[in-house]
Hints:
By secondary structure, the chain is an alpha+beta fold. 38% of the residues lie in helices and 14% in strands. It has 63 helices and 48 strands. β43 (1856-1864) and β44 form a beta hairpin. α48 (1471-1490) packs across α52 (1560-1574) and α49 packs parallel to α52.
Amino acid sequence: MARLANYFVVVGYDLDNRVEGEGQGRILQRFPEKDWEDSPFPQGIELFCQPSGWQLVPERQAASFFVAVLTDINSERHYCACFTFWEGLDSPQLKKVDAGDADEADEEPAVVQHSKLFAPKSLVVVSRLDYTEAFRNCLGLIYTVHVDGLSTPLETVIGNLLTCVIPVAGGSQIDESPVCSLDKVPQSPACDWLLACLQPGPEEREDSLRTITLGAGDRQVIQTPINDALPVSGSSVAQLFRQLGIVNVLYLFCAALTEHKILFLSSSYQRLTDACRGLLAIMFPLKYSFTYVPILPGKLLEVLSTPTPFIIGVNSFFRSETQELLDVIIADLDGGTVTIPECVHISLLPEPLLQQTQTALSMVLDPELEFSDQAFPPQSMNPSALKIQDKEIRAVFLWLFARLFQGYRWCLHIIRIHPEPVIRFHKAAFLGQRSLTEDDFLMKVLDGMAFAGFVSERGPPYRATDLFDDLVANQVERIRQEEACPHKVMNHVKELAEQLFKNENPYPAVAMHKVQRPSETSQSTDQSRTPFPVLDDVAVQLFIDHAVAKLKSSPPVVKAELKSMVPSGPPLGDIVDRNGNVMANSARRLEVVRNCITYIFDNKMLEAKKLMPAVLRALKGRTARVCLTQELNQHVLQNRAVLDDQQFDYIVRMMNCTLQDCSHMDEHGIAATLLPLVTAFCRKLGAGITQFAYSCVQEHMVWTTMQFWEAMFYSDVQNHIKALYMETDDGNQQSNSDQQDGSGNRREISALELAAEQNRLWPTLSKEMQTERVQKEESTVFSQAIHYANRMSYLLLPLDTSKNRLLRSSGLGDVESVSNSYVTNSIAGSMAESYDTESGFEDAESSDVANSVVRFINRFVDKVCNESGVTNEHLKALHTMIPDIVQMHIETLDAVHRESKRLPPIQKPKLLRPTLLPGEELVMDGMRVHLIPDGRDEATGQMGGPPLLPAEGAIFLTTYRLIFKGTPSDALVGEQIVTRSFPIASLTKEKRISVTLTMDQFVQEGLQLRSCTFQLMKIAFDEEVASDLAESFRKHLHKLRFPQHVQGTFAFTVGQTGKLVLEPKTKDKNQSLKTLSKNLVKNAKRTISRQYVGRKKEVPATWENRSNFQSELDEDEISVSEEVDQSALTLSSTIRSSDRQTMSNVVERACCRDYQRLGLGTLSNSLTRSKNEPFRISTANRMYTVCRSYPGLLIIPQNIPDSTIHRICRCYRQNRFPVVCWRHSRTKAVLLRSAGLHAKGVVSFFKSPNAPTAVPSQADSTSLEQEKYLQAIISSMPSYSESTGRNTLSGFTSTHMNTSESSDKLRQPKIGDLMKQVLGNKEDVPGTFSRGALGQKAKVISLSQPKVSGKARNSPRGKWGSIRGSGRLSAYNPDIGTRLAGKESPQPNGGPNDPLFLRQQKAYLYIIGDKAQLKGGKQDSFQQWEVIPIEVCDVRQVKNSFKKLMKACVPSSQTTEPNMSFLRLLEDSEWMTLLHRVLQVSVLVVELLDTGSSVMVSLEDGWDVTTQVVSLVQLLSDPYYRTFDGFRLLVEKEWLSFGHRFSHRGAQTLGSQSSGFTPVFLQFLDCVHQIHLQFPMEFEFSQYYLKFLAYHYMSNRFRTFLLDSDYDRIELGVLYEEKSDRRNPQVCKSVWDYIDRLNKKAPVFYNYMYSPEDEEVLRPYTFISNLKVWDFYLEETLSDGPPYDWELRSRQESLAEETAEKADTGAPKSQRHIVWPCYDNLSKVMPDAITKLLQDLQNLEAELGQTSEKWKDTWDKIKTTQRTETKLESKPSFSSSLLMSSNLSHQRRSQGVCLQDSRVGSSIKLGLDCEASATSTPVAGRPSTSTLYSQFQSTESENRSFEGILYKRGALLKPWKPRWFVLDKTKHELRYYDSRQDKDCKGVIELSDVESVTVGTPTMGAPKNVEEKAFFDLKTSKRMYNLCAQESSNAQLWMDSIQSSLSDA
Length: 1945
């Protein structure tokens, strides 16, 4: 029983005391005045009566009521019900107040004084019970008695209130005697009726129903809950959900459980209390144990900044003061919002629980939602009444907790039963079995205070149970079956809600409330009110004393608490397994683990070794790890299992692997089950010395985790205590110990059940028995503590205690660890020396280890012994024991360590030596490493097959390469050799990594090395590699990668001694260069005029790169624009005497040969040169004084003197002025290259010449010179001299374009369209493309976005790339929609068909310039050049793009993220976009040149993009450059001579290290590769040739791609030495010589499909969709490294043959060979047919003893015989029909067989150099007639049935031409030739295809003077032939002959 009210208090406004202008409250009276013993009076009530502060108001306010909650120091809650009303103040009181006010308001006397003020007064009931309504009624009644002046004295009512006693929790226990029924109120003296009241009352029902009256004619029924463990919520929970909504309340719920700070805001105090009560109610069965203040007074707001969690309510009046709280979640009840600060992360419920809970809640709160879409919704779908809804919501949360905590009782450890149960919760096991270890929410809840309270309250096995215990034990199965079906869940929720409602309202029918309210009149009239009287405390005290006396005299009512054994529910294990969280195909894996263990113990080591990798993989799964522990347990006899070395090694390895994947929590108990095993398995080391497995598995986090040891300890203690009682009970309770469970199976009694039974018996035992049991338990715990001190010392002390190696985390030590803990067979054998310590320090250090281990064990012992009640004496004994245990163990370990060192070292794979190139030498010998797999799938076995990586081997550092060579760790492929290597010069990034190897389970240091040859090496150093060795490896690598000077690179040091090259001192570097610069500057200063100097100073430094350039180049002084005194420059000042023959060498240079070929002038007749040649070779730069980076000989217009060049070059960056580099053989248009203009030069360049200038400054004269120069170029063009300017671009379009016949595929875009694409023009207005620099309307190519590719074809010569995707427009182009808005048909290559563009006169010279450089210039209308401004991609873009490309092609680690896929990364790299741009501009230039305009490419510094564009243009336009010689010449001319900065862009030296690797040349090669793919028959070299160049461009093996210009090469004396150096013929210094040598030996670089057409201009498609990723970036050959160093391959092959001969023991050899894509070199193991045949031929010749012919001669022979055969047939051979049917659709004859390429991967063409028109290609699937006759070798004359001349109209766009036609009836075909004598057939018309022969009509372009009837048409199934004879009779003859042949057939 409990008092309804403990105290009654009257609190009023304190008129005497005002602090800082704020009113105070004070307690006027309180009853009883003495504190009750069981509940002291709470302090500070006056603050809570007016939480917003005590104030006087001018108007009387309505009475208010709310309940505040105060928590005392024992965390007991006191409910203070405050009833507040307002009383008027009389005059003397007012004066007091005014006086106080005046004191404060001295400065402001004008304070408004009110005539009447009202002060608040509060009546407060303080209680330990929370009966809000009862308190509201009682206080209301007291107020009514006072206001209405009822006859009952107030003292009586208050006395009755304070003496009222009610049961705490009822239920229907009627057997208790009722104490107090106050329903009779006799009108006699107080004492008499009080006694009368204390008699039992007649209406007393049961205990849970208590009727009370306060003696003022009132009566109330108070229903107490049946079970007080369940919270009482009224309707507060439902109210809370209505105010905030489902999601918000769930956030608050999770926040409260995970211990966040929660603040409620509302303007109503009662609502704040209700909301807090509601939040606590849904947290049941957890109890909130932090600060809980539903109403916080304003004076105490600083409480909100407390660091601990809280739930607090504050009036909205203080909202502004809560704004700056950073970590508080604010719930605004009135506004319905919850604000979560950014820094707060609330962990939400795990899915699917969260979703299911939300669904259930919405079904409770909004049942109509489900049916809202139904056509006929059910009639009554209203939500339940608020009180019922409240219980339904609580039921949902109860159901939620039952799911969250199901099976929690199985994770309780009972460690003491007597005298009190001590229980601990095993969190890790609980999470592990639920597989929720990763779940943030549950982790936080289990760590929280609320859950700790839950365990201590609900842990005991013998206690009263409630609804939650029943739910979690007996309804788990039901919950699991129904969880997926919301309606079943709702039924369950309704059942639970009914129980909750019944608990709160046991008798819902009884509700007699008769309480008077104040009358309306008394409320409205103010005057009549008297102040609340002072009560007679004696009278009230008398009531209280009587009641106390009466209670003392009556016997105490003890309600027997119904205790019972708490049911545990189904164990957790079943739950999870049924959820199916078991690994796939685990049965097979477990089988593997079992077999392996059996093999080990049967000593079948070879079998075990094979299974080992599979076992280690399987042990990733939990089931396999559990299986391992079970299997090992079976092999332990009497706690001991002695193994031999190898068995021991394998067992330890498996244990390590198992432990490696255990987290430090050990949630699956794997470490726990291994703990007894590691002390059981051992091996004998020597006389009486045994090494146990624990010394080899110490490297795991779990051993240093205190929680692990505690959980282990408690679970062991529980087992021992259980055993203790099982023994004692054995005798008398045999029958009980094994209980029958429901299904009849016998199951073992659990520890909790045992404890419950013991607790039940405890009161019945005698004192002696009780003490005996307590002692037994205590000594059990004590003995376990000693046992664990031993165990912990085993696992914490390292084998070599002399090392200060301690465990990793937990403050137990540092990571510097010694090997023996994870390598069992001591490699200590080989490492002992390095690990020996100096003896002097040994003791000190070992004691250090010992101390920290002792400290750790002591901490553990203190904690567990205090929790499990070990006596102090025992604890002291333990503390003295522990150091001895540790010391003893250290001594044992020393002996073990000594012995283990003597073991023979483990057999490791032999280190394989790599084959080296001639001249390549080792810098560092092999270091043992492991090659770890990276992000590429192929080698890891993911794509099928056993994994080749990880592999174990060694890394070698040579002067040229970094080589890994080793064998895979997987035993199944152990015989294969894995090689991965790359040239040191290509290293781009080196990064330290730490790697965990699966075999050894410990982290090793490693390196990740990335190379720009698309290779990545992730290596982990073996433990035998000392860290300083690894460090010196890194330093050597860095030194070799960035030598101080280019002479330190391998290309220069090759063949010298193997020592690292000593760098030449920088002081005397380039001595001649320095003197040259000095002379130049000296002479220049002499000749500069003052005016010029003045001008120079004004030049703004607008060119941004200039500043860094000058620091990068030695020649900065020379690039200043200054006049140079020629006389000062002698030959000797530039070039060393040894190179005096320079001039003749310069002439020999390849460029000169090319210039002569192009007809651009020769040097031989330079003196007697005829003046009519438009160009000449100038030697102005022979001393490299005009431009340091240009070649010595340059092509310039004939009439420009050398002196002009010196002036012109100043306008261009780096002095790179425009020079001619190629001339079109047909149109005679020229291609020029230069750098961009200096910013100042541009404006003056385009300045109108008539502009008024006061003085003709030097700037003007320079710009005039420039104009003259350009004019000279223009006038050199034949088209300029011929035409008078009528030639417009639009005139070039042929009328045939629009004929109906023209096939869509061949419709070509005009140049205008091409320009528009390149410029990205948005407006289709004629004349948009302005003449001059950049008109207002001209748009600009933006190279920041990909554009539609530009290609065109305007001349009859030339061809397009393959038509794949031809109809598509590039999806990338943003402007394409606007362009095609007109009625234009899209072109196959993406050019819009727009004739309006570019109608005006064609320019003679187009200047492709950098948009940024061409600002603000105006051009004269009659100048003949036009500027095409484009945005150029700068080298930084190329550099970054390449970095991303490398990461995409060779990722460093595997990832499953969708945005990290290969294609996504490739797109992000924008590499393809850059290729597209370069190709696009190149195709435009090709087009312009082909139409007869010259083009000058003038971009950036003229050595990056310019070089790319110029080279590609020449390659596309001139077939010569597509041969071996031509391509070499192109690269030497445009890239080497014209000064592409190879060393700088390749970051080849220390100086250029910071600039990073920028593969401009590689980008060019990729573009060539793209063109090669589209035109495979136009290139003499294969794709492999391009890859070879790409590789050696980055490898620095040859000198070809070193240094930045010819000048630098002459400086180093390497330009002309290649021919002369014969000392070491093995070492090639030039990549070209090497290629030549190789090409003579084998056809590796040759393209068998080579079958060029004369004067062919290529126009590739440049859409990104047409570009392919180069396989050079993706392929790798693990068998013998990159296939680009041929000497290595031949050496490896010869070695392989030798070993094969030795190994050949007569066993039958299999002919089968497995080919792996990433391991084998496909071209080598699967060679193409032709290479194979050529090799066979050579082998046969060798066998016959003939001298074998060179492959090229053989091939040429075959080709010629092939050609003659084809001539005889005049038909494509059968092979071509194969090809055609294989859908190689070129728009021209493409004969040949598609085969695998020689040793590389491109396709091959059997070159049949015969002509065949596109018409005669056989249709797939129908054999051509010609193939039927191919066996006849008859001469052609026999087969000529009828012949003669006919005019034939050409295919699309071709004119009528006379051809010699032959009608051949034998072969049933009509052939035609160029002339009668011609042997080469030009085309064939199959007669079988002819459908009709009809009379024709003349068409445009037909031969003149021929009568109409001479025309006839021949219609075939493919096309129409328009033919014309010389006269009509002849035509008739032809028609008849053809008809008769048709009818004959």
